[in-house]
Amino acid sequence: MTIEVSKATSHLLDGVKVESSVREFKMILDEPEKTGGTNSAMHPVEALLCALGSCQSIITRGIAEKMGVEIEDLKIELEGKLDTRGFEGDTSIRPGLADIKSKFIIKSNESQEKINEMMEKVKEFCPVGDTVSNGTNLEVDYSIKK
Amino acid sequence: MTIEVSKATSHLLDGVKVESSVREFKMILDEPEKTGGTNSAMHPVEALLCALGSCQSIITRGIAEKMGVEIEDLKIELEGKLDTRGFEGDTSIRPGLADIKSKFIIKSNESQEKINEMMEKVKEFCPVGDTVSNGTNLEVDYSIKK
Lengths: 146, 146
Prior knowledge:
The structure is a homodimer of 146-residue chains. Chain A is α+β, with helices and mostly antiparallel strands and 146 residues long.
């Protein structure tokens, strides 16, 4: 099977704290106090950046290994910009991220040429990167329990 | 200021384990053994689903409060489908998620009409939902340290 199905369940707790479960793992997210939370954890947009940076890191590891490129260390600095008027109800502004910057700091003795070649593949084949930059079909439905 | 800048740093550890830092918070992600990890944490696509489900939960809380809709409980079941041939190098298949389904289970005594109205707003104004469904500009650059 080449189709991989990933599943998660999110459960809204007190206030805006949310516990998500995936297999045997949990992720708690929350909002800072200024947006109504208790600042007990990072917020969802920050978690999205972590998912992206992690996916970019993992795909880099895989591609580097296939290409025989030695990476001594890799850090990725991510930044996402969002105009809060969008999700607060101003329909002329999108509610989501206006843009994301992802800056790789690669410690390696390989040639610039080799790293360029690797990075072209990283940009092309990152699953979360592709999802976030090209978008995907998102189907939302709901049921009501009394 | 209405522009909110979110930042994260991802650091590739041993194998495909990645530690991401956001403010005072950390997120560790990893891959299952079959994809080269040690299964110490969920993987990035699962984390993306958690970010989405959490964002949908939080925006529901906010919109419900504004509308005076009482929600007793909210769970969201998310499912994302990915064809692994895409990130493994088959360029005829996208590397990212082919689609995401998000199913809200809402415990509430409100009318169906009121819940429908609320859900229209939830679908329209969720920041991570909008980012994932409509995509965003993703800029990747890199520097090499010897």
